[in-house]
Amino acid sequence: MTEQQGGYRIHDWGGDLQWEEFDRRRPGEGEVLVRVEACSIGLTVLNCIAGNLSDDPALLPRVPGHEYVGIVTEVGVGVSPAMVGRRIVAYFYLACGTCSSCLAGDDARCANLAGWVGVHRDGGYAPWAVLPAHNAVVVPDDLDPIAATVVPDAVATPVHVCMSRARIKPGDRVVVLGAGGGVGIHMVQVARLLGGRVAGLDVQDPKLALIEEHDALAVRSDDLSGLDSALWREGPPTVVIDLVGSAETLQWGAASVGMAGRLVILTTFRDRALTVDPRQMVFREFSIIGSRYAGRAEVSLAAELVATGRVKPVIGAVVEAEGVPAVHDALRAGQLLGRGALRWEDT
Ligand SMILES: [Zn+2]
């Protein structure tokens, strides 16, 4: 008889999640079975549930939750039995592992991308999940599973942005737009770690206090049009990282980034555009850089940064399954500090 599990599933994109009992899958060839210990709750999960990554009805029902951590309990054909018992985090992109980008370690640029965990494959809003072995990134066994929930996206994405894309180095002046959010507060920490001086922009007092706690200048950004970019005596920012993606933030970033600066864009919406004056780009010799998730090696590095305490996970709410809707509400209201985490009982 097939074993059952209780978890949350999406039955229509953009609709409410349903709690229900359904079959537990067994791992097939090249797959691992994971006993999920915890899964992060953040805006990306809400975007997936809303159908922003795919709204194909053929993918339903689907367990959301891309950022999860757990223990491998069983492996399918072709997967090393040494994986059993290891703690892993889920790599978000369903990369092929064999194209030239994947082989170069740029898994997020995979030429044969098959979709995303939590959209094209079940995620961590249920206590058991099956994952391609390629997507199971082994982390230190003593890494706390709640702390590890921020690793695969909320810390790995900043590692990619700050190290591979913006190439932040000591002396850089870095502005993070939306710095009090789940990715933002870890972006602040990674930018600081690389020697950047950081200003975190956000709109709510608790988030501004959080930014200050992480050794960054906290700046209110309710009215961006009136905000002077000269936040430091030495001059305007050399790096602007936009996690908001509104017309206002994009425009402010392009207008504010200084000589030889880098404007990094990673939050986008279908209907938002940025108008750039090419003369300004030339005069200030600035670059506009897109950033797309992170490679698997960057996820491993993110795990190491958290395990060694160099990046401190900011998790504003840890709940059992019944607490998930309330955390979603807090997220939508902009009231969650950092990420949320869904903890599964020992199953
Ligand atoms: Zn590939």
Topology:
Elements: E1 4-10, E2 17-23, E3 31-41, H1 43-49, E4 68-75, E5 87-90, H2 100-103, E6 128-132, E7 136-138, H3 145-148, H4 151-165, E8 173-177, H5 184-193, E9 197-202, H6 205-213, E10 217-220, E11 239-242, H7 247-256, E12 262-265, H8 278-283, E13 287-290, H9 296-307, E14 315-319, H10 324-332, E15 339-343
Parallel strand pairs: 8-9, 8-11, 9-10, 11-12, 12-13, 14-15
Antiparallel strand pairs: 1-2, 3-4, 3-6, 3-15, 4-5, 5-7
The structure holds zinc ion.
Zinc ion (ZN) is lined by residues 95-97, 99, 101-102, 110-112.
If helices are DSSP runs of H or I spanning 4 or more residues, what is the number of helices? 10
Give the percentage of residues in beta strands: 15-25%
Query: pLDDT average, as an integer?
Result: 96
Query: From N to C, what is the helix and strand string?
Result: EEEHEEHEEHHEHEHEEHEHEHEHE
Rounded to the nearest angstrom, the radius of gyration is 20 Å
Helix content: 10-25%
What's the shape?
Answer: globular
Terminal CA distance: 18 Å
Under CATH at level 1, the class of the largest domain stands as: Alpha Beta
Biggest beta sheet attributes: 7 strands, mixed
Task: Describe the fold and architecture.
By secondary structure, this protein is an alpha/beta fold. The chain folds into two domains: 4-150 and 313-343, Medium-chain alcohol dehydrogenases, catalytic domain (Quinone Oxidoreductase, Chain A, domain 1), CATH 3.90.180.10; 155-290, Rossmann fold. Helix content is 25%, strand content 24%. It is built from ten helices and 15 strands. The protein has helices spanning 43-49, 100-103, 145-148, 151-165, 184-193, 205-213, 247-256, 278-283, 296-307, 324-332, and strands at residues 4-10, 17-23, 31-41, 68-75, 87-90, 128-132, 136-138, 173-177, 197-202, 217-220, 239-242, 262-265, 287-290, 315-319, 339-343. The strands form three sheets. Strands 3, 4, 5, 6, 7, 14 and 15 form a seven-stranded mixed sheet that branches. Helix 6 (205-213) links the parallel strand 9 (197-202) and strand 10. The two termini are 18 Å apart. The mean pLDDT is 96. The structure holds zinc ion. Zinc ion binds next to helix 2.
